[in-house]
Amino acid sequence: MMDFSQTLINKSDAIVEQWVEAVYQDEQIEATKELTFKAVRDSLPRVLKALATVLSESEKSDLQTVVDASLEHGLLRAEQGFEPAEIAREYRLLRFIIFSFLEEDLLKASSLELLRAVRLIDTVIDEAIARCFNSYTHGRLQELEQLQSQLRLTNQELTRLVRASKDSLSQLAHELKTPLTSIIGYADLFLRQQRQNPELKDSHSNLESIERVMKSGRLILRLINDTLEISRYDAGRMILQPTVIDVRELINSVIEIIEPLARNKELSLIVDCERAPNQVTTDPLRVQQILTNLLSNAIRYTESGTVSLQCYQESEQTWAVSITDTGLGIALEAQSQIFQPYFRAVSEQQASDSQGTGLGLAIVSRLVQLLHGEIKVDSQLGKGSTFTVILPL
Ligand code: ADP
């Protein structure tokens, strides 16, 4: 009987490299866009080694190694934000690559050996997928529980807010209605399906329900946190911590966070700090928050073209940052309202797709005031927008 596992072991480096490359390049696996090559590779060599050991005739066959490696793989992919379909695709690519490496060996085998080899490889890979999904679901459920306990905590602070301000609360309640309805709907569907058919626990549609629940949960959490941030400012409880900072360093740290978002939408991100002051005295966290908000808006509302940031000394007493995009633009009559909480200048559908809260600019304008600065918008519908923040040196 032939032992094709030896080929797998001998060529494991090449197989892993080809696998990682295929996963990384696959257009249908979007989660890798924000990951480094190393992060994608991380648990794959172990999965392959486990598969090769189990398939080997000479070693004692122990499925437990595949189970362990796949569990670890599933947890990692849950953390990295993979969708279930993307994991399934990852294993499909592996199956394809394994067979292409074994082709020569398999063609030399008898039909019986060939049949046995194909069956065995399929069984082991199927087992790996099942285990991987299992731990993936587990990872996602844990995240869901964390989200729930965070929601509970913010809820307590929200209760205090109710007493302070009735108006903003009714507005918030209105904003929470859509994501909450979706959380309840999908969670209910998930539980009902599971009750009717417990074996379905890890099925694709259930995993997708969990994804939707989490997406809405995260949005609610952001809505609540942003509202609390505004209420903290309005109650005069936001305190500045000014220090002397290196402007370029601060901008670079923001760009590092934002860069994957721009790459994801294939927008070019241009930074010009040539005329920036070297040092200023300000609260770095607040400035970071302002720039992150403006840059993510610029990316969110731009489908193609460029997002650019320019930092320069504006006068003897002031410095400025301008963020320009080639996106949707904002109609003149909406420009005075975009700094109001919950105001969205886009259609309901676009607003819901963008996963925004309608609070970003309201927070930005408050932070700019807190820093004794000024914010200006210059925009043309269909052409793009420029937001400029002017701050004291
Ligand atoms: P959101 O979470 O909806 O992005 P913001 O308060 O950040 O909330 O922005 C309010 C509205 O202003 C957005 O819904 C959008 O209509 C508009 N807007 C903000 N930034 C831009 C931009 N760079 N280009 C076009 N429209 C924008």
Short description, anyone?
The protein is of the alpha+beta class and 393 residues long. The chain has helices at 5-10, 12-25, 37-41, 44-55, 63-79, 84-108, 111-164, 166-196, 204-234, 247-264, 284-300, 332-335, 348-354, 360-370; strands at 243-246, 268-275, 279-282, 306-313, 318-325, 374-380, 384-392.
What's the arrangement of secondary structure elements?
Blueprint: H1 5-10, H2 12-25, H3 37-41, H4 44-55, H5 63-79, H6 84-108, H7 111-164, H8 166-196, H9 204-234, E1 243-246, H10 247-264, E2 268-275, E3 279-282, H11 284-300, E4 306-313, E5 318-325, H12 332-335, H13 348-354, H14 360-370, E6 374-380, E7 384-392
Parallel strand pairs: 2-4
Antiparallel strand pairs: 1-3, 4-5, 5-7, 6-7
Helix pairs in contact: 2-4, 2-6, 4-5, 4-7, 5-7, 6-7, 7-9, 8-9, 9-14, 10-11, 11-14
Overview of the molecule:
With 393 residues, the protein is an alpha+beta fold. It has helices at 5-10, 12-25, 37-41, 44-55, 63-79, 84-108, 111-164, 166-196, 204-234, 247-264, 284-300, 332-335, 348-354, 360-370; strands at 243-246, 268-275, 279-282, 306-313, 318-325, 374-380, 384-392. It has 3 domains: 5-139, Globin-like (Orthogonal Bundle), CATH 1.10.490.10; 165-234, Helix Hairpins (Orthogonal Bundle); 243-392, 2-Layer Sandwich (Heat Shock Protein 90). Helices cover 64% and strands 12% of the residues. A 5-stranded mixed beta sheet has the order 2-4-5-7-6, covered by helices on one side. Strands 1-3 form a two-stranded antiparallel ribbon. The protein is elongated. The structure holds adenosine-5'-diphosphate. Residues 297-298, 301, 325, 327-330, 338, 343-346, 351, 356-362, 385 line the site of adenosine-5'-diphosphate.
